[in-house]
Amino acid sequence: MEYTDTYQTIATESEEVLFKEKGSKFFGYAFPIESEDEVKPIIENLKKLHPHAVHFCYAYQLGVTPKISYRANDDGEPSNTAGAPIYGQIQSFGLTNVIVVVVRIFGGTKLGVGGLISAYKTSAQMTLENCEIVEKTIDVAFLISFDYKNMNKVMRVIKEKKLDIISQEMEMDQDSELPIGKISIKTRKKNAEMVFDIFSLMFEINIKYL
Predict the structure, then answer these.
(1) C-alpha to C-alpha distance for 13 and 131, rounded to whole angstroms
(2) For residue 1, what pLDDT is reported?
(3) What is the sign of the dihedral through the CA atoms of 80, 64, 36 and 164?
(4) pLDDT by residue (tens digit) across 66-116?
(5) Which terminus of the chain faces fewer neighbouring Cβ atoms within 10 Å, N or C?
(6) Residue spans of the chain under pLDDT 70
């Protein structure tokens, strides 16, 4: 089965971008996000920053194929004139785990449907052009447990396979009163099955998915 274990997103929160059209001001922002829970606080902070703005339009995408979730929000603008063109730019740049927000301060002149679509699209495009785009891997985490005497065996595999250590600790086994090692590791998704098999076949070593 073909799947990807990398994705593109933005490295950090963007600088504010300003696009003007017929007196209206469109402020663009982009943020890297990991979950939908981050959306509401971002919008609330921007509302504090722009107390006179009426429209806080946004789009976001999370995850990779086949588990993608997204939303486009017009926030009071005519249907599909704001959220959809913003989302179109997220797709155009090939990004995920990102939200783009365009804040509009009305300038007194109506832009019409075509004008709005163009303004929100341009604002989102300018915002993303301002961002550093990075490639990240989708990682899978494991917990490895072992008697302390097997520490070197475990560490050798971690080093050979270039696995990332998330955390490691030692604790005393209540039954044997011997030290037990616990190491949390992560590897990119495409290597996960191989890594699991290596450790599960090793004597006196337990591995489980986190």
Answers:
(1) 8
(2) 42
(3) negative
(4) 789 999 999 999 999 999 999 999 999 999 999 999 999 999 899 999 999
(5) N
(6) 1-3, 176
Residue 209 near residue 193, CB atoms below 8 Å: no
Q: Which run of H or E residues covers position 57?
A: strand 55-62
pLDDT at 5: 82
Q: Which of 117, 119, 105 is nearest to 56 (CA)?
A: 105
pLDDT reported for residue 174: 72
204 within 8 A of 146, measured Cβ to Cβ: yes
Count each helix (H run) and each strand (E run) in the chain, helices first. 5, 11
Q: Provide the token pair at 108.
A: 């007194």
Give Cβ neighbours of residue 144 (< 8 Å, ≥ 6 apart). Answer: 154, 181, 182, 183, 184, 185, 199, 205, 206, 207
| pTM, rounded to two decimals | 0.78
Element (H, E) at 111: none
| Per-residue pLDDT, 3 | 57
Every domain of the chain and the residues it spans: 6-136, 138-209
Residue given tokens 């785990």 in the structure block? 97
Q: Which residue has the tokens 């890594």?
A: 195
Domain 138-209 coded CATH 1.20.1250.20:
no
Q: Which two tokens stand for residue 52?
A: 């006179």
Q: What's the distance, CA 54 to chain centroid?
A: 28
d(CA 179, CA 147): 6
DSSP state at residue 176? T
Structurally, at CATH architecture level, domain 6-136 sits in 2-Layer Sandwich (3.30)
CA nearest neighbour of 210 among 146, 145, 154, 135: 145
